[in-house]
Structures are given as C-alpha cells and as structure tokens.
Design brief:
With about 375 residues, the protein is α/β, with parallel strands linked by helices. The protein has one domain: 2-enoyl-CoA Hydratase, Chain A, domain 1 (Alpha-Beta Complex), CATH 3.90.226.10. Helix content is about 45%, strand content about 15%. The longest helix has 18 residues.
Length: about 375
C-alpha cells in the first residue's frame, strides 16, 4: 500500500540535509487524513531534534494540488455512525497541533504551493516561512460551502491581511486567489515557474556552508528563491482580486446583514466573481454568521488563543452546526442540495450564533 506521506532527505549545502515532506494522495488532491497528520507530526518532531536537517520542504504529489483540504469525509462518517464528536475532536486537535508546530518550527519551512491550496492546505502553507506559488496555484478557504468556517489558523492569518474586507471576502465566498494576487496580498512570498522546482532544490544542495549557521541557511534559501522568482514583467497572471478591491470594500462593509444585501444586489461580470457570489448565496447562512463573528473576535489575538477557540468552534459545528449536512451534500452524496438549518442569513438568531462560543475552550496539545 502506498504511503500517504513520503519523507525524504535531500542534500543541503553539501554536508547538511533538507527534509522533504510530500503529501502522497494525488487522487484525493492530497487531502489530509488523520494518518497523514500524525505521520507528519512524528517526522517533524524527529527532524526538529536532528541538527543535520537544517530546513524543511513541503509539497504535494501530482500536478493538480498541493493540498485541497482536510479529509472531512472521514469526520462526517464518524458523526453519522455515532452521535459523539470524539473522532472529530481528535482530528481537528491533531490538525491544529500540526499547523501550530509548523508556525513555531525553529527551522525554515518552504511550502511549494502549486495547484489547489485549499482549507487544510492553506493551514500548512500559511504556517510556512516561505510560501511559493506557481502559475497553476489557486488559494482558497471554501468552508462556507460545507457548513464550517475558515479554520486551520485562518482566524489568525486572514487577520494579518492589510484589508479586513479582503479577509472577509475570502472567508465568505471561497474565492480562488491566483498566484499573482497571492503575492500582492502577502499570502505568498515567491512566484516561481513550476519547471524550476528541481533546479531550486539543486541550488540548495550546491550551496556552501562550512559549519552550521542558521543565518547562512536563511541566506542560501532566500538567494535561491530570489534568483528564480518571476519579475512583474514576465508571465505573471494579471491581478484580479486586488484590482477589484474597491468593489470588495463596498460589498464587505458593515455587519452580515449589510454584506448579504450588498452581495444580493451585486451584478458581477467576471467568472471568478460570479462564482464567489454563488458560493456565498448558496453557502450555510449559519456559517456566514460564525465566519464574521470569529474573524472579528480573532483580530489582535495570539496564535495560541486562536487555535484554542477554533478547536472549540469546529467541534461545535460538527455537533450542532451545518457541517454534517454540508459535507453530505457536497462531498458524499454530491447532490449539491444542502438543507441548511436556516434558509436565509436574516433567519439566524443572534443567540444561536453566540451558543457556538459558550463552550469551555479546550487546551491545545503541546507541540
């Protein structure tokens, strides 16, 4: 049986090592299973202690996706077969522990975010110091379509964007951000052609470092990335989302009722914005409320407190939210006809939203 995650070491500066993590389930767009998460946690702990491993390279197998999200179908099945949320709690707990470990990892992490980078994939990529996109990259947080909300630390990293409205827009619409826009917004750090991947890794190997020096490791990585990064004049896609920022500012202002009214009357012209409007209007009304409540709460909060609150909220979405129905409709039965608990955003009582945040916050596992 094929291992769902492949671990390798490549040479780095001749005498040292680059730890390579390859998500290896391309037929599922490298969606993260519990097994994959636990294997990565274990290997990263080992590499953290190994002084010969000086940096980590994170990628996905195949040419379609780095990672299209968490394997939420497994979580769904656990909820269908049992009323308990034990597996759901364990899954999200481990996924967030992995994301938190990557955020705090003492060695540089380079994420090769080619193809789809969605949901759980965004959690991995945004936790990496160097976030590389290629022409095929599409970054998105589409959780409103499955009755969830942007988790995996998105409450934190979306709040790092300069524009609150862009953060809201991504969270509420599942808009697929292009490589160019990802760089413009700060979601990505480098834009590199897909065919330069091997040459980039080779340049790490061919560098020179006489003795272990973290600053030199950083210098080698940054020089190699800079050398292969595309300039603004070369085959970059035209930025779309950043060009539409004035429109997004208008659409995403005020409370969720204002946003709903603005989106309802909006007549988009480009296909990406048409799809964004559809995603929002067809998504879970309850999730729409939770998304803005969580983003507003998380502004200025620490990474640790954000992950603790996300664990509480994600389990609550499994137990009493639209998550189970959303996954059924989109990913299991695939009828795309979810029966949400509320028909419209205006139908969701404020007290109902607040109920999701009253559960005692569970501790994040130490990693």
């Amino acid at each position: 049986m094929t291992n769902p995650v492949v671990f390798e070491v490549q040479p780095f500066a001749e005498r040292y090592k680059l730890g390579v993590i390859r998500l290896n389930h391309p037929s599922a767009l490298n969606a993260l299973s519990m097994e994959m998460i636990e294997q990565m946690l274990s290997q990263l702990e080992s590499w953290r202690m190994d002084q010969t491993v000086v940096a980590i390279w994170l990628e996905g197998a195949g040419d379609k996706a780095f990672c299209a999200g968490g394997n939420v179908v497994d979580v769904y099945r656990s909820l269908v077969t049992s009323e308990e949320t034990r597996f759901a709690h364990r899954y999200f707990e481990q996924e967030y522990a992995l994301d938190y470990l990557l955020h705090r990892f003492p060695k540089p992490i380079i994420c090769w975010g080619s193809g789809y980078v969605m949901g759980g994939g965004m959690g991995l990529m945004m936790a990496s110091r160097y976030r590389v996109v290629t022409p095929s990259s599409k970054l998105a947080m589409p959780e409103i379509s499955i009755g969830l909300y942007p988790d995996v630390g998105a409450s934190y990293f979306l709040n790092q964007l300069e524009s609150k409205e862009i953060a809201r827009f991504m969270a509420l619409t599942g808009y697929q951000v292009s490589a160019t826009d990802a760089c413009e917004l700060g979601l990505a750090t480098h834009y590199i052609m897909a065919e330069d991947r091997d040459a980039l890794i080779a340049s790490f190997a061919n560098a020179s470092m006489v003795e272990l020096d973290p600053k030199k490791v950083t210098s080698i990585i940054e020089q190699a990335l800079f050398t292969r990064s595309q300039s603004d004049e070369l085959p970059l896609l035209k930025p779309e989302l950043t060009a539409l920022q004035p429109t997004v500012m208008t659409l995403m202002s005020g409370d969720i009722e204002n946003v709903y009214a603005a989106m309802l009357s909006y007549s988009p012209e480009c296909p990406a914005m048409i799809k964004a409007k559809e995603n929002f209007l067809n998504g879970s009304p309850l999730s729409a409320h939770l998304i803005l409540a969580q983003l507003d709460w998380a502004h200025g909060k620490s990474l640790e407190s954000v992950f603790m609150r996300e664990l509480q909220l994600s389990v609550a979405c499994c137990a009493q939210g639209d998550f189970k129905e959303g996954v059924r409709a989109l990913l299991v039965d695939k009828d795309k006809q979810p029966k949400w608990q509320y028909g419209r955003i205006s139908d969701v009582p404020k007290e109902r939203v607040m109920d999701f945040f009253k559960v005692e916050e569970p501790p994040l596992p130490p990693h």
